[in-house]
Structures are given as C-alpha cells and as structure tokens.
Amino acid sequence: MNTQDIAGALWQAMEDGRHMPSEWAGKFSLQQGYEVQLALLHRRLARGERQTGWKVGLTAEAMRVQQQVHEPCFGYLLESGRHASGQAYRFSELIAPGFENELCLTIGKTLRGPGVSLEEVAAAVTHAAPALEIVEVRGPFAGNLALAMADNAQQKAYVTGAAVPLTADNRDLAGANVTVQVDGAVSETASGSAVMQGGGLLSVLWLANKLAEFGLALEAGMQVMSGSFTRQYRASQGMRVHSSFDRFGTVAANFI
User: InterPro entries under this entry (predicted)?
Assistant: First the structure.
C-alpha cells in the first residue's frame, strides 16, 4: 500500500478517535512512517492549521538504545498546540499525557541540507525559550516506531516562556541546567548536555540534514523543540509543573 493510502486510512481512524490502530502495527517501514506523518501534516494544513516548527525526539543515547534505533526522530508543531507559560490543560481531554523539559529554539535563517554544518546552525539559531513539550502516549512506542512517527511522535502541544536572545554568554546550550518542580517540590535537576550528548544545537543540526531526505528545509521563523533535558514525566490530574532553566528563565503548566 502506498503512502497516501496509509495516510488516508490513519486520518480516518483519527477522525474516529482511534490513534495508532493496532491493525497497522508492523505494516510499513520507519521511512514510510515519516512520509505518512508529512502527508498527514499536509492534510492538516489544507484544513487551515498552521505549522510553527518541528520537534526532535529520542535525543538521549539511552532512549535510542532502548528503542533499537540509530538516530533521533522528528515530528511537527502546530499553531493550535502552541501555548504561553501558565497554560492549564484539561486532563480529561488528553490521552495518557506527559511532559518533557526542553528548550524551544528559533531559527533565524533557513537551513537547507544535506551538508548543513554546526557552524551554520550556531549562526542560524537566534533565540531559546524555556519550554515544556506536552506529549500523549496514544499507543505503544517501543516496537511500533514507524506507526508512532506516522502519529507525530507523541506530540500534542508545547508551552514556552519568554524567548531569550542567544549571545556568546549563553550559546553553549549544553551548559544550561533545568530544575523541575512538580506540585511545589523539586523533582529533578538535569543538564542540557543530555540532549544529543552536547546540547540542543546538535538536535537542530540533525533535523536540518534529516529533513533534506524528504526534500524539506528548516525554514527561517520555525521553532524547534530540541529534546528533553530529563526523562519523560507522566502527568496526573491536578499536577502543577514549574521548570526553571538557568540562563533562560521559567515555564509552567497545570493539568486540571
């Protein structure tokens, strides 16, 4: 079955409230999973949605080993999923939700691969904002990576604080740290070096060159959720999250 046929079937299943339908598990490759994801994105754009950027996932080596993949993964971000710090989500309207602690990076100059260099990335990324990615576990991720990519890599929404211009003093994203508070108590402190074993600019480097495989550029003005400093947290009703990134400020969200 071709990509458009798969996309049509998965689109109809989502319209019916069924995500990652089990009958499609193992039926197509990871490469085709990305192609289906992009075909579904085009359907959303045709329906009036607006793309704001991309997410990079599986940025931790341990996660890639666990999932038996050799590289990170990507998904798309939509305007309808972009929220300011302090956003309250209705827990009952989400599917097995969770969150990750990330930096949201702004691309100031289009990066078109293949062959994008780290120096080009460093010159193109203009701002970083403290961020939470809101994810949904809409089906089993392990062992169903192709289907998970077609379903946009668990992406649901993202929350950002104020964007901070990158300068010589803060451009080393690996040197940033986050302190995560859940319901008023410190849960964890983690380093940006956990992202791609060297910081979020490496996520942008990977993404720009990966998108080239699908004939796409990382366009100026796009935002990139560059990967979590921490493990993925499961959310619960009533949970309050407040994450503080040194050099970049704070971001908060609630699940009501």
Answer: Fumarylacetoacetase_C_sf (IPR036663), Hydratase-Decarb/MhpD_sf (IPR050772)
89-136 pLDDT tens trace = 999 999 999 999 999 999 999 999 999 999 999 999 999 999 999 999
Helix, strand, coil shares of the chain, percent, nearest 5, are 30, 30, 35
Q: Is the pTM of this model over 0.85?
A: yes
> To 5 degrees, how large is the angle CA 114–CA 119–CA 120?
50
Cβ–Cβ < 8 Å for 67, 45? no
| Token pair in block for residue 245 | 């990134």
Q: Which residue bears the tokens 């995500």? A: 19
Whether 55 and 153 have beta carbons less than 8 Å apart is answered as yes
d(CA 97, CA 89): 10
Q: Note whether 180 and 189 are within 8 A (CB).
A: yes
Please tell me whether residue 126 adopts helix, strand or coil conformation. Answer: strand
Q: What is the DSSP secondary structure assignment for residue 90, as one 8-state letter?
A: -
- For position 135, which CATH number holds? 3.90.850.10
Kindly tell me the sign of the dihedral angle through the C-alpha atoms of 118, 53, 210, 23. positive
DSSP assignment letter at 23: G
CA 217 to chain centre: 17
Going by the DSSP 8-state scheme, the letter that residue 61 receives in this structure is H
Tokens for 231? 């493990």
- Domain containing 46 equals 3-255
